[in-house]
From TrEMBL:
UniProt protein name: Tyrosine recombinase XerC
The UniProt record lists the keyword Membrane: no
Native organism: Rothia amarae
InterPro entries registered for this protein in UniProt: CB, DNA_brk_join_enz, Integrase-like_cat_sf, Integrase_catalytic, Integrase_recombinase_N, Integrase_SAM-like_N, Tyrosine_recombinase_XerC/XerD, Tyrosine_recombinase_XerCD
Encoding gene (name): xerC
Described purpose of this protein according to its UniProt entry: Site-specific tyrosine recombinase, which acts by catalyzing the cutting and rejoining of the recombining DNA molecules. The XerC-XerD complex is essential to convert dimers of the bacterial chromosome into monomers to permit their segregation at cell division. It also contributes to the segregational stability of plasmids.
Subunit structure and binding partners: Forms a cyclic heterotetrameric complex composed of two molecules of XerC and two molecules of XerD.
Lineage of source species: Bacteria, Bacillati, Actinomycetota, Actinomycetes, Micrococcales
UniProt similarity note: Belongs to the 'phage' integrase family. XerC subfamily.
Length: 331
């Protein structure tokens, strides 16, 4: 196992309401070691690690209230009781499925690490997730959004915020990458000669993704006219390799980008979409609509399972059915 340096802080920040864990070093140490495992052996993203921490911390706090002081004292009854309590507090089926998954991963790790002799979650039934088709923008809505931002840039060609916004929209829609992948891009990630860029996805897996010409044009405008305005604001005066930076000259974070996208999306008619993921859904759906092979779409999106990608075939069928019902006189 790759050990962190002594300068790295690994102690997890406990979610609010779980301060009871501070009183039990056994559980805290287990959680800290589990976080190390997720980060250095499984290469999970910060977002995924935070979700695991939240679930396991909440469960441990519950176990403490039930009188458990050792991991070995936790059994399937206690696990089911906690899940039942979450259900009683109106947790959705998707949330319960995530909680169950977190507990399975944690206790499988604990058993393998020798912290427990038997995994209490082996016979835990997995709640079925609710199936919701993702929201998708149609091609006209995408174009409307791009036109609006482009008009604002035409009015002020050196508006760094809009130059970044246009580049972000074009790249997200052109490639279907995740917002977390976009903010981790560096200037060196782009291969202009081949119109591609390298993405580091979930599980630290690298893939090469093509970029369309409009995305490359928007990106060039950002790099040449927008980025230099903010780059000089870096308080440390250091070279920032990030492709997308914020007004202070540092790497942009996902929250900043997501908020800008949501504000822009609110101006689009007939949609309640927000955030960045709608561009990933839209890109995948339009690829399938255009006849792209489902396995090619899987590779582009970085899905480990084909089943995850196949949701977009369902979206396309639903869109086709809705169009038929609206347009055909005998539908």
């Amino acid at each position: 196992m790759k050990q962190p340096s002594q300068h790295q802080t690994l102690s997890p920040t406990l979610p609010l309401g779980a301060q009871a864990l501070d009183q039990d070093r056994v559980f805290v140490r287990a959680l800290e070691n589990f976080v190390r495992y997720l980060k250095y052996e499984k290469f999970r993203s910060p977002h995924t690690i935070a979700a695991y921490q939240q679930d396991i911390t909440a469960f441990m706090a519950f176990a403490l209230r039930q009188g458990a002081r050792e991991l070995e004292e936790i059994d399937i009854t206690m696990v089911r009781s906690w899940l039942a309590s979450q259900h009683a507090h109106n947790a959705s089926r998707n949330s319960l499925a995530r909680h169950s998954s977190s507990l399975r991963v944690f206790f499988a790790w604990a058993e393998e690490d020798g912290l427990i002799t038997a995994n209490p979650t082996l016979i835990l039934a997995n709640p079925k997730r609710e199936k919701h088709l993702p929201e998708v923008l149609n091609e006209q809505q995408i174009q409307q959004l791009i036109d609006q931002v482009s008009q604002q840039i035409a009015h002020d060609p050196n508006d760094a915020k809009n130059l970044r916004l246009l580049a972000v929209i074009e790249i997200l829609y052109s490639s279907g990458i995740r917002i977390s992948e976009l903010t981790q891009l560096d200037l060196s990630s782009i291969n202009r000669s081949e119109n591609t860029f390298r993405v580091i996805g979930k599980g630290n897996k690298e893939r090469v993704v093509p970029l369309g010409k409009p995305a490359l044009r928007a990106l060039s405008q950002w790099v040449t006219r927008g980025r230099p305005q903010w780059f000089k604001n870096n308080p440390q005066g250091r070279v920032e390799p990030a492709l997308f930076i914020g007004p202070r000259g540092r790497r942009a974070n996902s929250r900043q980008i997501r908020e800008d996208l949501t504000r822009a999306l609110h101006s689009i008619e007939n949609t309640e979409a927000s955030g960045a993921h709608v561009f990933r859904h839209s890109a995948a759906t339009h690829l399938v609509d255009g006849g792209a092979d489902i396995r090619t779409v899987q590779e582009l999106l970085g899905h480990s399972s084909l089943a995850t990608t196949q949701i977009y075939t369902h979206v396309s069928v639903e869109r086709l059915t809705n169009t038929y019902n609206k347009a055909h006189p005998r539908a």
